[in-house]
Amino acid sequence: MTKEKFQELNKKHSNHENKNNSKKLLDLAVNILDAVGGKENIKKIDACITRLRVDVNNINKVDSKRIMILGAQGVFKVQSGIQAVFGIESDQLKDLIKDLIGGNAIKRIKTPHKNQSNITKSIDKNLFVSPLSGKLLDLKDVPDEIFSQKIIGDGFAIEPVSGELVSPVNGKIMTVFPTKHAISIMADSGHEILIHFGIDTVKLKGEGFELLVKSGETVQVGQPILRANLEIIKSKASSIITPIIFTNLSKEETVTFEAGAEVKAGQEEVFII
């Protein structure tokens, strides 16, 4: 097979995979909309990078058990509705559900089952560096139960002393949230990493953040990817503590680090998997 033929077949395969992934995400959005009581029950829908936030007219019409079956890692009832943790796909799901509410006719499909993907990853601690300067913290010290209870994955947190965020790995930027406070990276090792700068920083709507990368961009370990104004964030968000979460670890993998240690952005051997 020629190199050109191989590249052509590989491109077709990638396009097919992308179409399948888009279809699965759309099917999921259809089922979530139904599980929260349909469009008539939704007052408002929004998303952080890890969770859907749905304000509803009647909480009794929300089927939390079904939302969990659909793949949510957690469903929390709040005063005005629910928050459902769907990880880094939450923002895309929010947009799809808004499109559905807007009148797009989509065929109803069977509820999918949650699936654990088996990913073989090459582990090398030298591929990982600290993304921030500051103090290493255990996730239990993060003032947000989504992170402190490890609902979306294991990891650690940093209480930063500087606002420059660098890529902890060689990899590719997968998602940059519109409000700039959170970034997900696919490492060359196969690990998906979510960095969520501060807590409740989605409310700042981008204020205090300067993005240095965009979705789809390849990044090198130690490369600056975000600058944050700590003074603005301290004054307007509930915390500057920043969780770093590995969202696709296998059951055998854990993140090991020294809680309380002071680290520098770009420092090697801060944590191992």
Automatic annotation (TrEMBL):
Its main location: cytoplasm. Pfam families: PTS_EIIA_1, PTS_EIIB. Residues 144-248 form the PTS EIIA type-1 domain. One of its GO terms (biological process) is phosphoenolpyruvate-dependent sugar phosphotransferase system. Keywords: Cell membrane, Kinase, Membrane, Phosphotransferase system, Sugar transport, Transferase, Transmembrane, Transmembrane helix, Transport. It is found in: Cytoplasm. The keyword Membrane applies. One of its GO terms (cellular component) is cytoplasm. Residues 1-20 are annotated as: Disordered. The keyword Isomerase does not apply. The active site is at 48 (phosphocysteine intermediate). Residues 26-107 form the PTS EIIB type-1 domain. It comes from the Bacteria. GO terms for molecular function: kinase activity; protein-N(PI)-phosphohistidine-sugar phosphotransferase activity. This is PTS system, glucose subfamily, IIA component. It comes from Maledivibacter halophilus.
